[in-house]
Design a protein that fits this description.
Pfam families: adh_short (PF00106). Helices cover about 50% and strands about 15% of the residues. The chain has nine helices and seven strands; from the N terminus they run E-H-E-H-E-H-E-H-E-H-H-E-H-H-H-E. The chain is globular, with a radius of gyration of 17 Å. The two termini are about 20 Å apart.
């Protein structure tokens, strides 16, 4: 299916690697102008270079999504550069504390994961929504997880943070359509990304079950397949789509 994102102005967080990188490349391929937010400058630049080498427009901002001042300033700068914001594709996040028992779970790890995954989602949404309300249009796609909807996470903090993202999405879905804003979250399953691979290796080392970890990594879904769905969700062709999308 051909997806039309011509002249769309899109912010992608977590665009250095994984689903964020694949989505940045895909929406650019479909005609969008991309503002890429991440703290990983080296890999972000690789994404930017790949977009530009294919004739697309992209620019990088070094953004810690848990820092409100940085988020506010960067969204404002990106709005000016893009000329508006049609979509937010929010994939920035961490998966720490894999296979750690609850009674041994470090409070610092809990706080950091919730700060980045949940508070970061709230902050990005807060400042992007302010722009979209002025425009009376926009699409927001947030990264949830089956771990936050169905349980089964290897990390108490990660599963809880993604459950919070899902809850935030449901509230936004109800509150924002009157401003012309469509909101989704996507639960992408097990995807081949540094975040997921790191979690699998960490769990294997902690549990001592390292025998089949490399084979398991090879069975992970490709981020490009998720990016194809994300690009459609961001397009006007998906204007009747509602709710959570599960993949994988």
């Amino acid at each position: 299916m051909e997806i039309n994102l011509s002249e769309k102005r899109i912010i992608v967080t977590g665009g250095a690697t994984g689903i964020g990188r694949a989505s940045s490349l895909r929406v650019s391929q479909d005609g969008a102008k991309v503002a890429l937010f991440d703290i990983n400058e080296k890999d972000s630049q690789k994404t930017i270079d790949a977009i530009r080498s294919s004739g697309g427009e992209a620019r990088f901002w070094n953004v810690d999504v848990g820092d409100e001042d940085v988020v506010s300033r960067s969204v404002s700068e990106a709005e000016a550069w893009l000329g508006g914001i049609d979509s937010l594709l929010h994939f920035a996040g961490v998966l720490w504390g894999a296979s750690v028992e609850l009674d041994e779970f470090p409070e610092e790890t809990w706080d950091t994961v919730l700060d980045i995954n949940l508070r970061g989602t709230y902050l990005m949404s807060k400042y992007v929504v302010a722009v979209m309300k002025k425009q009376k249009s926009g699409v927001i796609i947030l990264a949830a997880s089956g771990a936050g909807v169905r349980g089964g996470s290897s990390s108490y903090a990660y599963g809880s943070s993604k459950g919070g993202v899902h809850g935030l999405t449901m509230v936004m879905q109800n509150a924002l359509p009157k401003y012309g804003i469509r909101v989704h979250d996507i639960a992408p399953g097990s995807v081949k990304s540094p975040l997921k691979i790191g979690q699998m290796k960490s769990s294997a080392e902690r549990t001592g079950n390292t025998t089949n970890v490399d084979r398991a990594i090879e069975t992970l879904n490709d981020p490009e397949d998720v990016a194809n769905i994300v690009a459609f969700m961001a397009s006007d062709q998906a204007k009747l789509l509602r709710g959570t999308v599960f993949t994988g």
